[in-house]
């Protein structure tokens, strides 16, 4: 994959070179944009999966190339069968969420990539066209996370707005992490980041991807004007939630930060979690088990971000120390 300092050139229909200027960028047509779509599933939510894929195939104004990746499940055996034209990839073993998404990327073509979890869907049939238009008009954007809404009307969790000052969910802004269930990116930026963090399996891969987007010279963007549907689900329902949450927080620092900042980042989040779960000793015990594993186990590839990136993030409101 390309390094962050030498991004390849994209077609004029979706040019994505970083821009550090306030000048107006001319609008480009998006009707010819091809979007490679990776839908990830374990095959346990067939109705939701069908809804998500249908919402992709119903998109107008773009051409979609879709693959359904089965993590430990063969999508070719789906009942009912997946729509014609949807590719399938069977991963005999559940490789985890980030690795599953990465495995689907080589199977689709397009100037843009869109990642969709099987329990998410797109209420608007112009979502991808609108998102690609934003990428074309604002080439400094390297990742878009939409506003997430529960289809039954339940109040969305604050964590779905990935910024410290949450504010109005419809307000758009730069962000330094992302909710991973529906993510749109220029493909050249995704390639430059190195992709999703394979070793993480689950949790915090959206923070790393956003950090690496910033390190390419782009920004990660929360688009309050774009909407994805997703039910409100408690992430702590997974037995491994607390452990992987802590392990990956340590790995995030070890993989991406200059060595001098690693203890500051891990220390700040350790203090936050102790305060947050002080009255939940069982959760805190599991969390510290993952914290210790984060230091003992190998986190995979280390790509410390540039100090220039840290300065840009700081000026934008969030230095990577918390």
From TrEMBL:
Keywords per UniProt: Glycosyltransferase, Transferase
**Which GO-annotated molecular functions does the record name?**
glycosyltransferase activity
Q: Does the keyword Transferase apply?
A: yes
Entries under InterPro entries matching the protein: Glyco_trans_2-like, Nucleotide-diphossugar_trans
Q: Does the record carry Transferase as a key word?
A: yes
Which Pfam families does the record associate with it? Glycos_transf_2
**Glycosyltransferase 2-like domain: from which residue to which, for each copy?**
39-190
Region annotated Disordered sits at 1-28
Q: Which residues cross the membrane?
A: none
Q: In which pathway does it act?
A: Cell wall biogenesis; cell wall polysaccharide biosynthesis
Q: Which family does it belong to?
A: Belongs to the glycosyltransferase 2 family.
Know the name of this protein? Glycosyltransferase, GT2 family
Q: Which species is listed as the source?
A: Agromyces cerinus subsp. cerinus
Upper taxonomic lineage: Bacteria, Bacillati, Actinomycetota, Actinomycetes, Micrococcales
């Amino acid at each position: 994959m390309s390094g962050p300092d030498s991004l390849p050139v994209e077609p004029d229909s979706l040019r994505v070179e970083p821009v550090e200027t306030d000048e107006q960028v001319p609008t480009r047509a998006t009707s010819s944009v091809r979007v490679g779509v990776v839908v990830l599933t374990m095959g346990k939510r067939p109705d939701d999966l069908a809804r998500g894929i249908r919402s992709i195939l119903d998109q107008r104004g773009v051409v979609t190339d879709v693959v359904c990746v089965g993590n430990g499940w063969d999508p070719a055996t789906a009942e009912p069968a997946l729509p014609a034209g949807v590719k399938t990839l069977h991963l005999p073993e559940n490789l985890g969420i980030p690795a599953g998404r990465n495995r689907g990327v080589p199977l689709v073509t397009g100037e843009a990539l869109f990642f969709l979890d099987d329990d998410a869907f797109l209420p608007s049939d112009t979502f991808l066209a609108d998102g690609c238009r934003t990428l074309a008009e604002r080439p400094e954007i390297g990742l878009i996370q939409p506003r997430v809404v529960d289809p039954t009307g339940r109040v969305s969790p604050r964590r779905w707005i990935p910024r410290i000052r949450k504010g109005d969910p419809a307000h758009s802004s730069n962000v330094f992490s992302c909710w991973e269930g529906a993510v749109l990116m220029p493909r050249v930026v995704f390639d430059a980041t190195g992709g999703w963090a394979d070793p993480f399996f689950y949790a915090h891969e959206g923070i790393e991807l956003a950090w690496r987007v910033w390190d390419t010279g782009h920004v990660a963007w929360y688009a309050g004007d774009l909407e994805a549907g997703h039910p409100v689900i408690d992430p702590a329902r997974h037995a491994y939630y607390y452990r992987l949450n802590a392990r990956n927080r340590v790995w995030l620092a070890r993989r991406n930060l200059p060595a001098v900042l690693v203890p500051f980042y891990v220390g700040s989040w350790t203090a936050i979690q102790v305060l947050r779960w002080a009255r939940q000793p069982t959760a805190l015990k599991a969390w510290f088990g993952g914290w210790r594993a984060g230091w003992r186990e190998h986190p995979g590839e280390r790509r410390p971000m540039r100090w220039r990136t840290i300065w840009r993030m700081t000026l934008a409101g969030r230095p990577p120390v918390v």
